[in-house]
Amino acid sequence: MITNRATTICLLEILKEYSDDTHILQMNEIISKMNTLYGLEPDRRTLYSAFALLKELGYDISGYEENGIGYYLRERDFEKSEIVMLMDAVYSFPFITDKQSRELIKKLQKQLCVNSRKTNRNLAVVRSTDRKTLNRQVFYNIDRLDEAISQNRQVSFRYMKYGIDKKLHPRRKLLYTVNTYGMIYTNEHYYLVCSLAGCSEISLYRIDRMSDITILDTRNDENKNAENKTKKAIYAFSGEPEHISLKCRMNILDNVIDRFGIDIRITEHTDDYFYATVLSSPKGVKFWALQYLPYVEVLKPEWLRNDIIESIEANPYT
Prior knowledge:
Helix content: 25-40%
Order of helices and strands: HHHEHEHHHHHEEEEEEHEHEEHEH
């Protein structure tokens, strides 16, 4: 049974749940909610003391003497616009299942007062879920991998792929055993930065495609270059980064900087073209360049240029 000694806590919960700058609670409303929700009947003097205590504890509460109406919690952990942005991000992340997205949205909405939550319900309608993962283990996977990385341990797991039935199936019968170095988020997916046991080459595996993760007793093989190699990988292609020369149309300069960062070296430019050198994974650059065929030409290294030419010539549409 809730006693009067819980008045301050109950008052804080009411302010969080029902008040903001557009929904100011009058004293009689607060007393009514205290009774309805918690079975308490505090007098005004008790509530004034509770308000004073909350302010002493650092809660930013606007009172009647300030706004002339009543009381509301002025400052929250997140602004409404921040909550909307986070909700939007959760809906768009394909590595989170539809059910998990909705559960996360409910938790985020609890950061807003009950009246503000109603204004955000339409987000669930307009966000597409047809690209959501079917792997419900994704959060468990992240926790397990984080534990393994912290302990510098190897892990084993099954790696999944979609079958013609549009369901996930093991890619192979044997388990993958890898050294765990870190996790990154890129290209709308989380990846484990790792290397196969006994190998030094860095690999990236999508975390939402993993299942049956087991932390092993064996410690990771040392790989001092793992972090640097990962930072230079794009489109989740790993590999030793190389200096790659590009000729690009000026109208995709924003796209190039978005993809490679401001560290690119622009060596020459005209009104129509610019020449740049980037340090990145050749496999990733190849995939990226093929998306921008009318606008990007890879000049060097020659082997990468020839590899792209072969891919273009193998185009089934030509």
